[in-house]
Amino acid sequence: MRMKLIFLALSLVLFLSGCANPNLVGLRGDAPDSTYSLQDRRAAKQHIQVFSSLPPDVRVLGEVSVERCHQYAQDTPPSDETLTDDLIYRAFADGADGIANISFLHRSGLMHNCWHIATGTATFFVFFEGPLITE
User: How would you write 54-106 as a 3-class SS string?
Assistant: First the structure.
């Protein structure tokens, strides 16, 4: 009986400590990313081009993901449009000219103190400048 009581108390402590942890994944909710200034966000939206697939004559910089956490029930859940904006801001900060192949994933985030986690992934690229080298 005493072992059951100790196990129950330990389980309760672990459960409650998980609820007290901050989220471990990305930004919270659907609000604009405040780590970038308004001026930078405007410049990013004007500069970064969004394509459904990679255009010709580009140099791929890599694939990048951004995540958001829907932590509180009263918050608006992260939308695909907000994730796209996050990708645009990140591409601008990384020196890209555009993004392509955007995909979204929504998964459970209960182990990370979120109702769900929204992930946006895109390929960052710069337009090729200069003559093509062929052999």
Answer: CCCCEEEEEEEEEEEEECCCCCCCCCHHHHHHHHHHHHHHCCCCEEEEEEEEE
18 lies in some domain: no
Q: Which pTM was predicted?
A: 0.77
* Cross-sheet strand order for the sheet of 27-28: 27-28, 58-70, 116-127, 98-108, 49-50
Our count of domains for the chain comes to: 1
Angle between helix 80-93 and helix 38-47 axes, rounded to 10 deg: 90
In terms of residue numbers, what domain contains 31? Answer: 23-127
Q: What does the pLDDT look like over 35-60, one tens digit per residue?
A: 888 999 999 999 999 999 999 989 99
CATH code assigned at 51: 3.30.110.70
